[in-house]
Each structure stands twice: as structure tokens, then as C-alpha cells.
Amino acid sequence: MMTDSSAEQHSAVLPADVPDGVSCKHGLKIQDHLHIKKEEEELWESLEEKQETDITAVTVKTEEEEEEAQCFLLHWRQSEENIKEEPATCSSAKLMKVEPNGDISEGPEAANTCTQPDSDGEETDCSDTEDSEDWREPLSQSEAQSEHMDMSCESFQTSEMNTKTFYGARPRTLLALVPENPQDSDGDLSDDDPTDDPDYLPTPADDSGDTSFDSMDEEPIASTSSSPEPPSKKRRKGKNSLKTVSLAELEDEPGPKSTSGTKTGTKKGARRPWRYEDIEAFQVPGSSFNPPDAIKTPFQYFKTLFTDEMIAHISQHTNFYSAQELGYPIRTSSQEIERFLSMLLFMGVFNFPAIDDYWHHESRFSVIADTMPRRRFKLLRRFIHFNDNQQCDGSPDRFYKIRPLFDMLRQQCLLIPSTYQHSVDEVMVAYKGTRAGSLRQYIANKPDKWGFKLFCRASSSGIIHDLLLYQGASTFFNITLTEQEEALGLGAKLVTTLCKTIPLPRLSVVFCDNYFTSFDLIQNLHGNLGLRCIGTVRANRMGGATLKTDKELMKEGRGAFDYRSTEGVIAVKWVDNKCVNLLSNACGIAPVSSVKRWSKEANTKIAVPCPSLIPAYNQHMGGIDLSDMLVHLYKTPVKSRRWYFPLFGYILDLCISNAWLIYKRDCSLLNIKPQPLKRFRLAVAHTLAQVDKLPSKVGRPSSSSPPHMPSQKKSNTPRPSQPQPDVRYDNCGHLPLHFDKRGRCNLCPKGVSRWKCQKCNVFLCLNANQGCFTTYHQKTKCHCFCDPASYSRHAGSLLLLMTNGN
Questions:
Q1: Which among 520, 609, 604, 633 is positioned nearest to 567, based on CA atoms?
Q2: In sequence order, what E strands does 90-189 have?
Q3: Nearest to 760 by CA among 704, 720, 707
Q4: Longest dimension (CA), the chain
Q5: How does DSSP classify residue 360?
Q6: Is the pTM of this model over 0.90?
Q7: Considering Cα of 204, then 207, then 211, then 214, what sign does the dihedral take?
Q8: 466-513 pLDDT per residue, tens
């Protein structure tokens, strides 16, 4: 029997209208059912009141959970109605009865007992077993509640279970944040859960505001400590909760900082506010150069780039390398290297199928054959060298064999005054061999598809001011880059490196193609160097600009364009034959101009409208292409087994093209008509072969030469070519030779002489009355001497010339 207190507790919850002894099929009395139901309703009411007073945390149920709860409630009501309708049920458990006075009586065991009313209204025992005297212990409240929950779940599963609810994945939703003040905007709140951040440390204020619970079955545990901070609870996966926070807490809470400019950071293009606005055009100052006092000779322009230091360097390392290979040096000199260079320059203009053809008797070319014997030329070509191989072992520089010559040339190119418009592009030096390994690159859209890749910076006139050899991952081995520059792509790093040597970057604009241009490059150049940039760009490097699609613009017709701008950078898409994307922070759309393009429909050129940055790009981007075209016009033959020899030929041709462009600019400043590139190159070659050198052949012509056969018709003899000024005034090797046949003096208009300068190959007066031979080789402007006294004053100069020649 139970105690009085427990009996009073049970009698307090027993309804008066329920008959005694009525039980369910599991042996649980109807009074217990109602008692358990009433406790659950009280629990739900207490929880709802708690949520109304403190709404800091509630459970957000998914649709499946809501549907499951409604089904459970429906079955509960159906089971309650069935219990009220059925006066008796079958049960296999013991029967318990709560008396009105509070005592609980225990009934006998009825495993298969069925109490049903008969026709007279009295209960009839339908059990197939006899009454037993055994009595069991009454069920406690928790055991009855668990049996009731098992019965309800069993009834729900048998009626509503399907494959979706059985095999379906557990629904998971994110944490939703609700502002504590309803007037706060939801857009100002962050959707980041601080518990997901591994570096997040909860504060007492944050913990005190979170009163979410994990399960309704768990009862709150009273804290015995005086601290108001509740115990920490593990975060359950898939638990849906609604948390209210204040805006002040979010502003005070330190969030994770995103590193801009890194590849692993968040893409900035998706968050930039691109607007339909134009940018202000940057006014590039006009280039002004001081006119020279006089035009220099082609040889002097060439020597400003290919200096005497470079020639001496080649001579020194050629002797050193030949001594390493042969055991003795070939004893070359700077004068011989200059003759060797002159022969290469001649070969670039007069191209023969083979090197030996220049000396062959059937195709002999005297300009080259008389400069140096064939064997000596081949010996120099075999052992010419530019660096010490023994000091370059283990060096990260893969171009170490030619690097010193490139560095000296680069220093000279940086000294050339430049315009404020620069272009950056790549150059291919042709090489089809396999000895260079991976240094040989392939570019399909270049005239020379196979070769070495160089990146150059040039002005709009075509003058190369800076260059960089590409050798893969170790290209920047000798260049110091910042962390921000290291995070850039290859093209952006190349442009940044080449633009660091611009003298006045804040007044300059650089142009580059889509291989280099990106949104990060433009911002980096302007932020670090103050340099502005215009360039074509690929669609995935535009910084997230939302422009019209190619299909939409093509429908609008040729000349249509769309643009967006942000942070001082404008993105433009323009339709020509196809859509072209550009980025710029130097100029934008206005003023809209036009370009001439060929139209198939009209069979003529038409004006196509375009933004202002299109003509600027077309005008100043072609500097590298112009230089590359000039180099290929008269290219030095450099076919060799040594892979670095084509690079040496490119250095020689680049010096000629740069020198000619500087000479052409000086001529325009003085309003003088310049000579063409071929004549300029030949003048440099002639001067290199003769300046500061003795003539190759000394003495009178051989008497074994065939006699001159006079022709019936008198022909005009061609005027002898004038020597180069550097050769004429070098005071070296100018010896007079006497000829039987007279010739017209090259200095005085009416003079006739039998004396000829051996080096200059011109007739000059040399007698007691006239001293044109001496005057011709001096820079004084006296053409003839008619008196013996004048001749005697210059006799000493003639003697000096003959002495230096001997």
C-alpha cells in the first residue's frame, strides 16, 4: 500500500466523472492517462509563459517537424475520443484503482481480461483465466508517463510512417538573428555565427543573453554558484534556434578581418559599387625635348648605347674563354671586335645564303671580305663570350651567359629621355634550337613563334627604355618585391617592375594589353607609384563590373558601348568587329570620338563612334611593335649552336633601332631630313670597320691587274663615296698614294691631283701651291691654299698624319 501523502497527490488529479477500474489495453488506467496529459499541458503552458517573458531564444521548427507535431496531436485526440467511447478495454497489466478517499486499491492480474457490459448493463468478465491472488507493485508516475509515450509513438509510427520520414536526412537550418529592438533594420545585422569562428571568445554579456534550450525533456539545472553566468552547453549540430541581439553588441564585437589583395581572400569585385558614371580625364603633359646644337654622326648615336665598355668586356671574356678551351688565348682586341661587329651589321643588310659566300671568288663581297679573313671571322664567332662560366655555377640566373651585356644595355636605355606615354609588351627573340631547354617559349600569334621571351617598356615613339628577360619562376630573382606585389599575378608583377624605372610616374600613363591588365594592377600602380594605366582586359579580371553581354551589344550595332565606374576606375565594353573590354583610370568616355573602319556593306571606310580611351590606346600602345618591326627589317644573321648568340644579335639590332629613333627625333627638332634606317646602319658599319684603325691593305695596287681597255664610248665615272666623319677626322692611317691617272680633288672645286688618301679613297691636292690633303682631314673650314706660305704652315700636320699612319 502507498503512503497517505502519495494517495492525496493522486486523488487530487483524478476527475470525478471517470468510473473506477477502467483501464487501457496495456493495463494503464484512464485516470492515469488524464493525469499524464494534464501534466504535459501544464509543462507546455509554463514553457509558453517563459518564452513570452524572455524571447531571447526559441526554437524555429521546420515544415516537417511542424507537420509531425500536428499529426501527433491529431492522433492524441483520436485516442482520447476512443477512450471516452469504449467503456472497457483489454489489458495484460495489473489494474489499479484510486478510491475517492485517496486510497489506491490493487486489482488481481488479468492477462487476457476483457470487461464488457452485457445486455442488462452489468459488467461481465470475459477472461479465459482464473483470478490470481498475486498482486504487483503499482506503477510510478514516471513509468506510467513512459508507457504512455511509447503507446503514443507506436500508434503514430504504425499509422503515419513512410520511407521519406524513415530514411530522410535530419533537417538542418542556419541560425537566424532577430534584432532586440524591432525598429532596428535587419540589413545592419550580420549573419555570421560567432560560435563558428574558431578564434571567437564568448563574453559574459553574450552568454547571459542566450537562453536557448536543447530539448524540452531536459529540466533547467539550478546553479549553486553565485555567478550569474550559466554553464556552457555544447552546440548541437542541426539545432535550429532564433537568437536576438542588439546592434550595439554587433558593433562592439570584433569580427574577422579580410585581407585584401590576396588570392585566398574574398573577391572584392562582387562588393564594389559599380555605377553608371564617367571618370574625369587626366591631362597628360606634352613631351618637350631640348634641341641639340648639331646632329651627331650615326656612329656617335650608336656608341651612346653600345659603349666602349661593352666592347672591352666582350674582348676580355672572349680571350679568357678561348684560353680555357684551347689552352691559349686568341689575342683579340677591342678594335678587332669592332670590325667583327661591322661585318655583322653588313650581313644584316646584305644577306647571303651562307657565311662562306662573302669570301667565295664567285660571290665575293669586298666590303666584308676585305675587312677580315674568313678563318679569323669564324674563329671569333666560335669563341666570342660575355661572362665567366666558372663563376656562374649554381646561380639562379638562367641567362648568366648573356646577362652582363643586357645589364649594361639596360643602364644605357634608362638614360634616354622618354615621353609621358609608355607601353609594356612582350618581345620574342627567334630561336628554334633545343639547347636552351625550357627557356625557349612558344607564342602562336607572334611572327617568331619559338624563341626567348622578353618584356619591354617603350615610349610611343618606339624607343625601348627598359627590358626584362623571362626565365619562369626565377624571373624576379634579383628584384625586390613587396608582399602586396608578390600577391599579384605574373603580368601585374612584370608591369610593376618595369614601371618602377619611369622618371616621373605621376605625370605618366602606361598602356598594356589583356595579358597584363587587371583591376588589381591599376589600383596597385596608382596607389604605390601614382601611375595611371589604360589597357584591354579579359572578362574575368574586370573587378566584377556588371556590363552588358556581348550578345546585347552586338545587337545594338557597331560602335555601341557600355561602361561602369568605381573607385576612379572605369570599365568599358566597345563593339568593333567584336566586343573589346578595357579598364582605365586615365580617361573615360567623354568626349566621344570616331575611328575609321572598313565596312563590307558600304565597300568603303566609315566612321565608327568610340569612347575617348580607344584612340588614346591605339595611338600609344604600338611602341613595342614599332621597335620589333625595325629590328626585323635588317636582322643580324645569328644562326649558331650556342643558344645565347641570338640574344647577342638582338642586342646589336636593338642598339641600331634605338639609335636611329633618337637620331630621327633630333632631326625633327632641327627640321633636318633624316636618312633612312638602312643608310644609318651602313654608316655605323663603315665607321666601325675603319675608325681608329689602319687600312687593311697598304701599298700600291698590284701590277698584275689586267690592263684597262679603253671603250669606244666615254662613260661617266661614279663619284667616289665620302668617308664617314668619324673616319675622316680620326687622324689615323691617312697616307697619300700616288697614281698615274689624275683625279678631281675632293675638296677644291677646280683642283686636279694624282695623290689619293689610302684610307678615305679620295683624290686631294698635294703640291707646293695647294694643301687640300691636310685641310681635308681637319675640322677647319679652309678649302684651298694658293700661296706657298700657307702650305708651309700645314706641312707639320701632314708630317704628323704620315707618322701616325706608319
A1: 520
A2: 90-91, 96-98, 104-106, 113-117, 123-125, 176-179
A3: 720
A4: 177
A5: S
A6: no
A7: negative
A8: 999 999 989 999 898 888 889 899 999 999 999 999 999 999 999 999
